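INPUT
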Amino acid sequence: MSDLRDLYQEVIFDHYKHPRNFHRIEGADRVAEGYNPLCGDTIKVFLKVENGIVADVGFEGCGCAISTASASLMTEAVKGRTVAEAERLFGEFHAMITDPKEPAHHDLGKLEVLCGVKEFPTRVKCATLAWHTLHNALEGKAEPVSTE
Ligand code: ZN
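OUTPUT
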């Protein structure tokens, strides 16, 4: 188990140091902003949705390692998926890190590296910020997200 935990931390650190899709999307048709006052994380998510598919996704912002890595992993996970699949991933990811009764087995692929966040309640909001913001962008909500 500890080897797995080390591997997870390596992946998180890599995504923090080299965040994927860390840029604004020119011609984005949906944009949403999020803020986690508990930690000070801010994020802006850019989406381009074509025929119900997340054709492109990017983000900008300033946050801690967990929020940055989570945003990076989120963009990789939803790119090329349908809007419905992206929303389903959001639900499953949220359950994985917030529901103590949630079984340890998920089908979330790489996103599972963040499952350890469950043990640190103050970090849960860091990990879910990008997803809440994505959710608002998908729904086309203009109001900024706050995790509070
Ligand atoms: Zn944070």
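end of record. The chain has a mean pLDDT of 91.
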